[in-house]
Each structure stands twice: as structure tokens, then as C-alpha cells.
Description:
4-stranded antiparallel sheet; 10 strands; DNA-binding; homodimer; 2 domains; 3-stranded antiparallel sheet; Jelly Rolls; Arc Repressor Mutant, subunit A
Amino acid sequence: MDNMALAIADKCRNCALRTDDALICAQLSTGELIELSSHSTPTNVDRKQPVNARLVDRNPIIAIVEGVIGLQHVLKDGRRSIAALFWRGDIVDLRRDGERAPGNLVALTPARICSLSVESYDKLVRDNPDARAVAISNMREQIHFAADHSVDLGKKSAPERLAAFIFECRRRQLGGDDCQIVDLALRRSDIADYMGLQPETVSRGLKELERRELIALKGRSKVRILDAAALRQLANGTPGKPATPA
Amino acid sequence: MDNMALAIADKCRNCALRTDDALICAQLSTGELIELSSHSTPTNVDRKQPVNARLVDRNPIIAIVEGVIGLQHVLKDGRRSIAALFWRGDIVDLRRDGERAPGNLVALTPARICSLSVESYDKLVRDNPDARAVAISNMREQIHFAADHSVDLGKKSAPERLAAFIFECRRRQLGGDDCQIVDLALRRSDIADYMGLQPETVSRGLKELERRELIALKGRSKVRILDAAALRQLANGTPGKPATPA
DNA sequence: AGTCTGCATTGATCAAAATCAATTTGCGGC
DNA sequence: GCCGCAAATTGATTTTGATCAATGCAGACT
């Protein structure tokens, strides 16, 4: 029992995946947690650093504990795009077959992740219905989110995309959906790569939202939402008046 | 036993979901199939028709039997975008919460779908490990595919997107990955809405691929791949020489 | 305090794709 | 085989955002 307590203390005590009731490790019995923890590797990743390839290769299930991780694809001529963002609680399953390159995970903020072995993860999903429910529901959210993101990239203007991005940040940040102040979390160039824009366009776009009095920029990475309803409208693709005419 | 045989005969006999070993209903015992079939509604949908909203509302799990279904979002000023494509064997789980509009399913070719009740679908995923494996692996593919699609939309040129689209069609069509002739399946304007382009640009882009001798257009909807390697390169984002210079 | 260094912003061009407006082309029905 | 029509193509023009090139700024380090 001391061993068990110690085993948990070692890695998992205080880990958000365990302490937040909605997340995967909170669904586990003590025994399951100990078992899982012996096949998991928690790691800190500095901003801009890729997640260790060897680690991913051995344990291709990555749970995000803290920070933001991007799934990055680099085209052969250097164009970079970030196909998806993963936030606290998300589970990234990197197993894949097929002809297209899988892309690689990079930290877009200082981050903490925990990589799990496929065997223990699959076992959990098989045997623990609560863990399974969390895992499946996270997958479903990822699918729905990806669809929304495709709509953003497919047909929206730069300001619309940025409005959508601000809401994504708000939804995923600790305070949740009712904060007035939103932390953009990523650098301009990462926002650009994620939203299919150039950094300059991100900059101008945020300025434009400010000019329309939908937001106020507070320093480099914080935004105060001034008119949440109008910003939401814009994010959802309502054309949006070209600002208050004189 | 006659009843059982009849019950299967009624709806599920000859259904691809049952006859194709890789698909969900092929994983079920006779009893499970009968049970599921009593909570499922197979439907044909004509091209351009939305999937009946009431049907989706009652049974929000949609399995694609045949044809192509698109998840369509229409912005308030009429811009249309198709966030995802679903092909034979795909399972669409439309349950979702959250602020963004869910989008609606429309048939992009004449299609056949089967809508399942959440209860019986969840029961299946809970109790039948093989069915669960099929369902989860389909979700994982959808996630990976969506990521690839985001890369296409985020940073690729029109010809690159079209090359990627041709490969998507090839991968999902019955013949599979080694066909020379690919059926584009969708109309130009649907391709446009899916790939984040305008129909005119799709037309010009396909012409461009033909000019570069990567493909040959065979009628309106069929394409012969002339140089699969180079086309793949282009799809993957290698700049691509501006055609054979004189 | 002073410099260094990465980011962010700004401004001036440029190019790709969108838009607008006709035609043209196939294809299903007679 | 010939209509009729939706879909596809073509061409001219405009727009948006990318690109290129500085400049500005704030925090880290000495």
C-alpha cells in the first residue's frame, strides 16, 4: 500500500489528468492508475520544441496535461501549417497507416504531456467504461472541432478566422466560456500557420477587429472581448458591417 | 428462426455494412443485427438532397452505405462550405453540444445511408469489442483525415488541393489505391466548396494538372492519372515545376 | 542603464484566386 | 438525332491576402 501510494505520488499526484474529474486518469481506480503509470512517460516540452520523436514512436498516445501542442506539417518548400491544436485534457492518438505523412507534434507554449503505451491505453478503453467514455467523447469533440476548423479555413475571411480563433482560445482556457479577457496563447506566426494566414495578416486582422470595436488588444497576447455577440456573429460568418461609418 | 432470417432479409441483407467484412454490421452476431436493425432506418437520398432532419434528430448516428455525403455549413450570407466528406463505411456521430452550428448532411451523389439510434449504437460499442474496434478506428481515421484536410486548406495552392482531392477519391472508391482511372464523384461546385475554392478555380486547376501532364480528363467526372508519383508529390506540397519549359 | 534579440507591426508591391459575365458543352428526355 | 438546360468552361477584371522590406518594441541579459 505504501508502494502504491508512492507509485502514484511519483508521477501522477497533482497531475491535471488525475485531479480534473472530466479527464481520463480521474476515471481510474488506484490499481489501474498504478498500472497505467508504469507505462506512461510524463514530459515537459519547451515552446517551439517538437515532442521527442523516439518517445512518440514508443508511446504514440499523447495526453496533454498543460499548455498547447500543435500538430505541424512542414511542406517540402518550407510552408508550415498547424493542422490541429491540442489543449489540456486532449488525447492524441498518433497511430496511423497510409500514404500521407503523419505530421509532428510541437509545443506552441511551454507544455506538459504524458505519453502512454498503446497496450495500456487500449486496455483501459477496453476494460474501463468511464475511461472509454472520456476517450470516445474526446475523439468526437476532435472530429467536430476539426469540421468547424475546416469551415473556417475553407471560406472565411481573415477577420472571421481570427474571431473564431479567439473563441477557441476562450473555450479552452481555464476560466472557460465567460471570461472577458482571453489569452491568445500562441504567437502571431503560430496563429497564422493554424488559421491559414500570414503573420502580417494576423496582425492586421486583429487591428481590424479592434477598429470595429469588437475587441481591445491588451499587450501582445491578451484580448478583451468588447462585443461578444457581434464577435460571435463575425466568427460564424455573418458578413459584418465595415465598421461605424462617419 | 424464420423470423430472424426474415428480419435480416428485410433491411440488412445485401447491405454493404453487413457484407463488407471491414464494416460495422459485419461484426455483429445474428441476434445483435436483428436488435440493431429494429432501431435503424435505411434511406436513399437523392443528390443535392439534405438528409432528413427529423430522421437525424431521432437517430443521430448515420452510417454511409453507398455514395458520398457531405457535412455542409451555410454561412449567413450564402457562402457554402463542405467541412467533411463521408464515404461508404464511414460512421457519422452527430451528437454535439456547444455554441457552433452543427451543420447538415447533404448527399453529393445519390446515396444510401442507415441511421441508428444512439442507444443501440452505444450498446454495440459497449458490448461488442469488434464493433467497437471498427467504430473507434473509423473515428481515428476521420481525425487523421481532417488534419490532412486542414493542411490542404490552410496552405496549399489550388492545383495542390485538387491533386490531394483526386487521391482522396481514389482511396475511397471501390477499386482502391491502384486504379488508374479515378471518378471525381462530386460536381465542380461541390469540389470547390470542399476544397475551399470557387468552381471556376477548380476547372482551371484541373486543366492546369492536365497541362502539366499529370492527369488526363476523361469526360466531366473521370480522371486518368498519368504520373501518380508526380501528382502525389504535388498533393503533398512539393512546389512542382511550372510544366515542361520549351 | 544599455544592448541584444526575437516578435510584432507597418507600408508598398505582387500574384493567386475570387468575382462577374458570357459562352460552350454534355447529358437526359423526346 | 435534336432540344433544353444545368453544369462547366472561358475571359476580363477586381480583390484579398501573400510577399518583401523595414521599422518599432519589449523583455532578457550583461
